[in-house]
Write a structure and sequence with these properties.
The protein is of the alpha+beta class and 515 residues long. It is built from 14 helices and 20 strands.
């Protein structure tokens, strides 16, 4: 923080070899509010000026050891931060003495004996000038401090393009001592291959305030004196100044940001390529899986099925096929999870199912074979809930095995509920099973009807208010539905229930005709 020094009393160095003169001047100066520093000869005056840094000097000319002329010359040779007025106070009033005193570096000449009124008026005038100087120095120091606190680099230059000053941030950006750049052309900070075009653009800014740099942010290739290239953001504006036109260039090293943007672009491109490859592979996998499940030439008369996945791949698998003895086999499987992982879990069921149908395998043996294959293949925590059915149309008799799935519903031709079968087994793939462990349920019928199997995703489909579709929704949709398209009625009712939103789990239906 800048400390104000404007109200500090001014210090005046009085150099005179006569005690009476020093005492008189001290009294005068004290009455006017000045502090005094005393010296008895020119040598002492030079030493006191160097060590005490007075604001003003009153110098006698005729003194021992070193006279006033020499002392004034030596003081003027010193480099001081600000102007220090020097008054000659001497009894030598000849014209040549006055001229010699002023030429040695003095600012004014007072002759002895002093008139207090004249002396006081000149001291007050000089105090006003020094006060203004202090205020100006403090303002400049404040501006420099503020400029150095800014995180952006600030380079000040004139109408010739010559650099006048740099703030601390600019020094760090260009890794240079400000003295090395002061006086050089601003275009020297630009990369060599861009420098000619930049110099022309900069000249336009200076001449008529136009161009792509004035008041705008542009990206420019930059170069430090040490040869390091980087990209900087640059904006130029003109400073309002009374003495001369000055401009500032606000610069920011954006190399890190450009590297980050480049990395993001490369990552985005890699991600795009990965996404395209993944999409292509997923489409191929989906097509292979669908062909694997929906095999051509499979006779599935009397079975209607529907699968509505929440993702590209469904964890539900619905199969139906007739055996060589014309038995209708059907399976509805619901693997844990969603998407490809769930689909792969259930996919291994397909081959076992079709092979068992081809061999007219009894249902308990089919269940045991599928279960034990899943037990070997699936990792811990993965399993497949399933319903398996075997229907003998001629005998009007059916057999069911349910493990971890919703109830199977036996409906008449009008969709009225006749009977329901509840799961009594664990899902497939959890424990080893033999045919004896796979106890089945039986159903028989005398008139036309249907057997409905569904996944829990259908029953748990909820509205915005949290109301589930449930068995009531299923039965209401099928009650009185068109005999030719009962599944259409069921899926339409489910869609209306969801009110446009997606189900949170895969939905599957399997409807088996019983004549």
């Amino acid at each position: 923080m800048i400390n104000s020094v404007i109200n500090r009393p001014f210090k005046v160095l009085v150099a005179d070899d006569t005690q009476a003169n020093r005492t008189l001047l001290r009294a005068y100066l004290g009455r006017l509010g000045f502090e005094t520093i005393m010296a008895e000869n020119g040598l002492e005056a030079v030493s006191a000026f160097e060590s005490m840094a007075p604001d003003m000097v009153l110098m006698d000319l005729m003194m021992p050891i070193m006279d006033g002329f020499e002392a004034i010359r030596r003081i003027r040779e010193m480099h001081t931060r600000h102007w220090v007025p020097i008054f000659v106070v001497s009894a030598m009033d000849a014209e040549q003495d006055v001229v010699r005193g002023l030429e040695s570096g003095a600012d004014d000449y007072l002759t002895k004996p002093l008139s207090y009124q004249v002396f006081a008026a000149k001291m007050r005038n000089m105090a006003r000038a020094l006060t203004f100087q202090r205020a100006r120095e403090e303002a400049i120091e404040r501006e420099i401090t503020v400029s150095d606190a800014v995180i952006d680099g600030i380079v000040t230059f004139d109408v010739a393009g010559s650099i006048v000053s740099l703030n601390r941030a600019a020094n760090l950006i260009f890794s240079v001592d400000p003295k090395e750049l002061t006086g050089r052309h601003f275009a020297s900070l630009v990369a060599e291959d861009e420098r000619p075009a930049f110099a022309l653009e900069l000249a336009r800014c200076i001449d008529d305030g136009a161009g792509n740099l004035m008041g705008r942010v542009a990206e420019v290739g930059a170069c430090t004196p040490g040869g390091r290239r980087f990209v900087m953001e640059l904006s130029i504006s003109e400073l309002p100044a009374v003495e001369r036109r000055l401009f500032i260039g606000v610069v920011r090293d954006i190399s890190a940001r450009k590297r980050f943007e480049q990395q993001l672009a490369e990552d985005a491109e890699r991600l795009r390529q990965y996404h395209e490859e993944a999409e292509s592979e997923a489409e191929l996998a989906k097509e292979i899986m669908e062909r694997h499940i929906n095999r051509e030439g499979i006779d599935a008369r009397g079975a209607q099925l529907c699968v509505l996945p929440t993702a590209r791949f469904s964890g539900d698998i619905v199969l139906a096929a007739r055996s060589p003895s014309n038995h209708l086999y059907a399976l509805l499987a619901d693997a844990t999870g969603h998407g490809l992982a769930a689909a792969m879990s259930g996919l291994s069921v397909v081959n076992y199912f079709y092979q068992a149908v081809a061999d007219d395998t009894p249902l308990p043996a089919m269940v045991a074979a599928i279960n034990n294959s899943l037990r070997e293949l699936l990792p811990a925590g993965r399993f497949v809930s399933a319903a398996l059915v075997r229907i003998n149309d001629e005998a009007r008799r059916g057999e069911l095995w349910l493990g971890g799935v919703p109830d199977a519903l036996h409906l008449n031709e009008n969709g009225e509920l006749l009977a329901r079968f509840t799961s009594s087994h664990l899902p497939l793939g959890i424990i080893d099973m033999s045919s004896e462990d796979c106890e089945t349920s039986f159903l028989s019928w005398h008139g036309p009807g249907r057997l409905l199997l569904c996944s829990d995703g259908a029953l748990e489909a909820t509205t915005f208010d949290g109301e589930e579709f449930g068995y009531d929704g299923v039965l209401a949709a099928l009650r009185g539905a068109d005999a030719a398209s009962p599944l259409d009625a069921l899926t339409s009712a489910l869609s209306a229930h969801l009110q446009g939103q997606s189900a949170h789990d895969d939905v599957s239906f399997l409807l088996l005709d019983m004549h």
